[in-house]
Design goal:
Layout lengths: L2 H20 L5 H4 L3 H8 L7 E4 L9 E7 L7 H9 L12 E7 L5 H14 L3 E5 L16 E4 L4 H7 L10 E3 L4 H6 L6 E8 L3 E10 L1
Parallel strand pairs: 2-3, 3-4, 6-8
Antiparallel strand pairs: 1-2, 5-7, 7-8
């Protein structure tokens, strides 16, 4: 493995831990992480895998497993997913309580977007694929990316009533899994996000989008 890949894995892991912590996961055991540990993981001395639990047990999804695929996964994706949801496999996950993040060194092609959607529709498994290079920096921190905030589901009805929106289909769209911000936020089809943009005349204004397959 090249030095560049090792550097990308190290820096992207720092961003990933930050995102997991923001999502309510207990990350203390993984926060002290050095470049030398990345090299040890790359040669198989230790595991890249991360298993974290949410500090709020009332959330339906209380666990997250982060899996690293350092070899090409594109051609083996459906075998990989089958093992994840096979209850007879000791390394399987329960879709009702656990979400999965997969870190790749290859591009997140259409097959990964389709696989993520298929798993949600068929098994209710929340799975996200990221190329490590896209997490070297948090995509939300880019100067051209306005703040995105997920609207709690219990507020959807009141929001639509106040804004005279008859159906979520009337809202602009953000694509499930395909949009990098939707992926970082863990959006699911039907979720609504608020985007706060600067305005030359009004200072700031909010727009809303709905996540669609």
């Amino acid at each position: 493995m090249s030095y560049e890949d090792l550097d990308v894995l190290y820096r992207s892991r720092i961003t990933l831990i930050k995102i997991l912590k923001e999502n309510g996961y207990e990350t203390k055991d993984y926060e002290r992480f050095s470049p030398w540990e990345t090299e040890a993981m790359a040669i198989g001395q230790t595991s890249f895998q991360i298993d974290v639990t949410k500090t709020n047990p009332d959330d339906p999804i209380t666990k997250c497993r982060v899996v690293y695929s350092l070899q090409k996964l594109k051609q083996k994706i459906y075998g990989f997913l089958s093992a994840l949801t096979n209850t007879e496999d000791p390394n399987s996950v329960d879709p009702l309580t656990t979400e999965v993040i997969v870190i790749l060194l290859e591009d997140v092609a259409d097959v990964f977007h389709k696989a993520a959607l298929d798993e949600w529709l068929k098994n209710k498994l929340r799975i996200r694929f990221f190329k490590a290079h896209t997490l070297v920096y948090d995509p939300r921190d880019h100067t051209l990316v306005p703040p995105h905030e997920k609207l709690p589901s219990e507020e959807h009805a009141e929001f639509m009533k106040q804004n005279y929106i008859r159906s979520k289909a009337n809202l602009p769209m953000i694509r499930f899994h395909e949009d990098i911000i939707a992926r970082v936020l863990g959006l699911l089809p039907g979720d609504i996000i608020k985007i706060t943009r600067p305005s030359p005349s009004a200072g700031l204004y909010d727009i809303y989008r709905v996540c669609v397959p």
